[in-house]
Amino acid sequence: MSVIAGIGFTAPWLLLGLLVLPALWLLLRAVPPAPIKRLFPAVTLLVGLRDDDSQTDRTPWWLLLLRMLAVAAVIIGLAGPVLNPNARADGTGPVVMVLDASWAGASHWRALERQLDSDLTEAGRAGRPVAILRLTDPAPLVFQAADVWAQQLPGLAPEAWRATADTVEQSLAHLEGVTGGFDTHWYSDGLALEQQDALLDAFEARGHVTVVAPPAPVIGLRPPTFVDGAISLQAVRADTSAAQSLTVLAQGKDPGGTLRTLATATIDLAADEAEGETRLSLPAELRGRLQWFALQGRRSAGAIALSDDSLRRREVALIGSVSGNEGLALLSPLHYLRKALVETTDLLEGNLTDLLPANPDVIVLADVAQLPQSQEAALVEWVENGGLLVRFAGPRLAASDTARNEEHVLMPVRLRAGGRSLGGAMSWGAPKTLAPFAENSPFFGLVIPDEVTVTSQVVAQPDPNLAERVIAELGDGTPLVTRKPLAQGQVVLFHVTANAEWSSLPLSGLFVEMLERLAVSSAAQSPDGAELEGTTWSPVQVLDGFGQIQDGSSLPGVAGPDLVSEPLGAELRPGVYTSNGRSLARNAVGTEDILTAPVWPGSVTLRGFEQSQERILGGLFLAAALVALVIDAVATLAVSGLLRLGGGAAAVWAVALMLSAPEGQAQETDNPPALTSEVSLGHVLTGDPQLDQLAQDGLRGLGDILYFRTSVEPANPAGVDIETDELAFYPLLYWPISPQQPLPSPEAYEKLNTYLQSGGMILFDTRDADLARVGATSDAARHLQRLARPLDIPPLEPVPQDHVLTRAFYLLQDFPGRQRGAPVWVEAAPPDAEQVEGLPFRNLNDGVSPVVIGGNDWAAAWAVDENGRARLPVGRGFAGERQRELAYRFGVNLVMHVLTGNYKSDQVHVPALLDRLGQ
Amino acid sequence: MSLSPAPDSAPVSALRHHAEDEASALPPLLVQAEHLAGSVLLGDHGRRRAGMGDDFWQYRPLQQGDSRRMIDHRRSAKGDQQFVREREWQIAQTVHLWCDLGASMRFSSSDQLPHKIDRARVLALAAAILMIRAGERVGLTGGLLPPRRGNQQILRLTEMFSRTDQADYAPPEHRALIPHARALFISDFLGPFEELQLALTKAADRGVRGVVLQVLDPAEESFPFVGRTRFQSVTGAVEHETLKASALKDRYLERLAERRDLLDRLCRDAGWRMGIHHTGDNAQTGLMWIYHALQRSPV
To answer: Where is the signal peptide (chain A) (predicted)?
Structure first.
């Protein structure tokens, strides 16, 4: 690759093509644009005319320049220009890229990927096969073409652990399997590796080693510890050259359950200081919510410190038998508990009524036999919700009748009266020691000191389920500690006292450990392997290399001692592990870990990440050439007169129209603005297409009549689907009853009721007047009853002679449709309406009747076809036409009634008013 | 004049239908008849003397030699004398049509405009229909379709007009003109001027008067061309290439005006009338002009 002015060319000899440009200039100048052929009969008049000048027979200079630029861009583009080319000495032969691939490199993994990509591109250009070896997760070396690896790059991710002795051994074994020499590119993560020398030797034996050092120094966060009532946060770093200030975010869930930063702390590191510490003092409530600490702006597993029980202090409520006990402190049943728990827990003391609302994690009842009924119920509820109740025996329990005959809900076992004494002055037997803990006991693995003896205890009644409830027993097999689950919680009974009266257990360290195992307390110091002997811990949350929390429930469990002592690896990932209600965190950076930067021997080539990325410019130049050619095409058309301005504008508009996404067309019939600007009659769609069409035609016919005769000029009628359409736009709904129509949904009834209450009117038409007249009922009438049952319809009566419907526009006596004679029902007049002497009509100034029910098949009489001719015959001859006319008049009256209310009813009183006024 | 065979009947009937449409909008055209000694045939033009015809001329007393069938009984019943109802002697005028069917007419500058030939055909046929309805005898120049009257002639004319001429610029046909007849020439008159001059001169020699209608495309009037252009006649026989069409516009318009001026002068000399019609205009205006021009041409 040759470099010209910072731009390298992969095929520089192609640039010689630029020399052709001047020749091209002359050539293009000589050739005028092609003529347009036009048919023109009047050419006879043109024959013999000469052109004035020869200005346009040459291509304009700017068009020439454009073409020159296009050609030059093509030539340069094909020459393969590369901005910021990697000008490094090229080697030959295979390359092994060794990646530390640990959490330490995670924060600059993007840069590493780019670097790898760039190096792979270079190796590909040089035709060198490449193998990638990840020290944290070694796999046999496979030499492949560089571009194959380049495609797999996004799949590479850093692991949350560092290379261990095992993985290095495996890596060396894999290297052994490679025959022949190779060059090595070692992408360090910025931390020294114990086995670095061994690896370097192996690499240098095969070829040249280049070490690529990361750009940023590594910083890690040690696990938080609880010291003197505050959380101690420690950061360590590998590069101590400058002072640094780090922000630590304490993250956890807020009461709403969302993850947020609960507190922040700053760790200041002076120059030459590899470690820094800060203390974070948080209320117990906040501390209980903490999930992890993170270094702000660092994206690696090492910058996350997961918290576990060591920060979480349990709240333990201690309740003694009788408050105000005058006994000596050392004899107090709570004294030893207090001493055992005060370091690691938050102790609450008081009476049960006060403490239960505080919802402690553990309640300890020391020698409490009976609780008041209400307290007992509250306590049972608390236990069932996940509380841990620990009870200790004592003289009072032994003397009481609690759990004597039947099992008490807050006692794991039934007790014999009295208990027993062992090895006292008056007994033969020696004090009993503890038997080794059974394997299924939570205490399994604890070492029992010899000096622990039991002299007195309460004794469990043998019950069928006694054996499974015993978690610790004496040497002779009598239960010492029993436990029973109670819903989500559990009840534990120590069959001895909490003080040293009955046994020496409270005096021993075993007592504390047993409380820890019961999750009564959590250890202040992280436990060592011995303490965890016999436990199995299952991962709950694990970290990946970037420090992202992932679900660990699919991973296998880890033995307790391994969890503490084994180095992190694929089998033991950093994360939070739980066992028996306790949780323990294992972090990428340990409590004692120190980060050290690697020191490389002089024999290796050391380089950093490249600052500027290689950019291949060929595509850019070719695209520019393409654009220039497009401009040239348009310009050529313009020059030769083929491109009209108008046409161009039209084309631009066409493109713009194509680009603008077509809006969904509004439905014309359902367009509310159109409906609101005009009166529109509606008919309810019944699902019977013939009937719906008839109703549509009928309303159109009625609309025509209204248009001709009145000032109501309705728009085209609309079919209304009561399930989906908005009803408010229609003053009148015509509802022909079809027995097949399904009942509307409750929502539709809701809408209909709203519609009726807000002044709408529904004209129900059963279309069965000839049947209903003889007193029988019909399918449609029965269906109408079913349909209308949920509707909010007032009492009805047949239209009275003085109803406003009889005179809203025309004076009518009956209301025929295609049928005649059936009564029409409207809202009943108010009971207090009275006929006034001398007036023809009662004073019925009520609202518009919300429903009109009849069976005269009005729509059939109204219906007209497209040409305005009646669709269906009515009656016979002139009488039939008269009947149709009356049907129309009914329709007009109805619409008038809907639109004007009882205006006409008022008008009839005018003569009487005038009379009274003496006019 | 080489004529291609008539196309199938569908376009023919379409053309006739179109022409009937145009003709139906005007009252029957009365061509002023000249009293001609020779070709005297019955027509609808009153000769201001009694003779055969449809229009009432006078009642005269029955004379000897009149057959009894000639008695007008309605008039005679008013008195004792018997009258004969005489009618005006009417003769028909002869009109010769020539419509340019050459290739140069098959041109339109845009899709919205009709071809010049279409417009010319419609105008010619519409005029023919008007005249035949008025009782004139209409035919083509040349011996191909002698003047006749009656609806059948319309069909024949339609058929003749439906043909096309392969030549680029068809010369006017001036043979077989009946003396003292009338003539209607429709063309774009872009062809050789001498032929037209010859035709009009010969027609004038025979006492034929008439009307010349120049049908042009709007593009031929406005010359809206720019850039390097090669202009071709419709058959491609005549070509002219220019590097800057816009520069030619003024000189082209000059030449067009000159040609029109020549044509006008020639017409005036021969006693003809000349009109211009553009395909962008309504055909009705063209027909109206023909109607008025034929009516007003000197007696």
So the answer is: none
